[in-house]
Amino acid sequence: MHTALDLPPPYTPIALREAGDAFAHACAVAAAQGAGTLVWVRRFDLVECAVVFEPEEVLATARQVLFAGMNAAADALAAIAPPEKPLVLDWPDAIRFDSGLIGGGRLGWPTDCAEGVRPDWLVFGLMLRAALTREPQPGAVPPAALIDEGFEDFEVPDFIASFARHLMVALDEWASVGPQSQPARWRQRGRWRDGDLALALRAPSWLDPATGEPIA
């Protein structure tokens, strides 16, 4: 397994040990470390990373960066996925491959920031199940994992670097076309439902709070 990230500017990587929490750490250091900070966890069985942004828009608009992160993750997966199996985004934050839940994205922002105020920072976190480390219970259907789904020679650091590059493309599109470009692209792969995005993001739909990993 590779142990380093090959990232272009403006990213600044922070690597955590296996027991680390990339999303929580990124939220904790966002104000001090600033935009481009990318926190990741050194694990072979789980893609876990988080990126810090310093948005120019008010929170209600800037929150749509979730869709930029989801699009980047989907693009990075599509580049190496078996072509015969579908990759689908579920409203607003889950990622499914061949109908199996593999993980998703989440968004953090300052808790005291009002909807009409520009937040000092945002954090997009990504978590995907890369490999199974525990045998399922007898008779149970094993959860979806990338390596078992045909993502051959999958390396977590390589994927995170690919995701980071695709995220730069998504943000360039945001800057040139506008924030609405990202939910529009999400809809091309996603099952959209109208709803309160801020409320939906308070608790990630794909995350098992007991394990801190994607729901099995």
Automatic annotation (TrEMBL):
Family matches, as SUPFAM superfamilies: Class II aaRS and biotin synthetases
GO MF: ligase activity
Coiled coil feature spans: none
InterPro entries: aa-tRNA-synth_II/BPL/LPL, BPL_LPL_catalytic
Gene3D superfamilies: Bira Bifunctional Protein, Domain 2
Pfam families in alphabetical order: BPL_LplA_LipB_2
Record key words, sorted: Ligase
Protein name (database record): Biotin/lipoate--protein ligase family protein
Organism from which the protein derives: Limobrevibacterium gyesilva
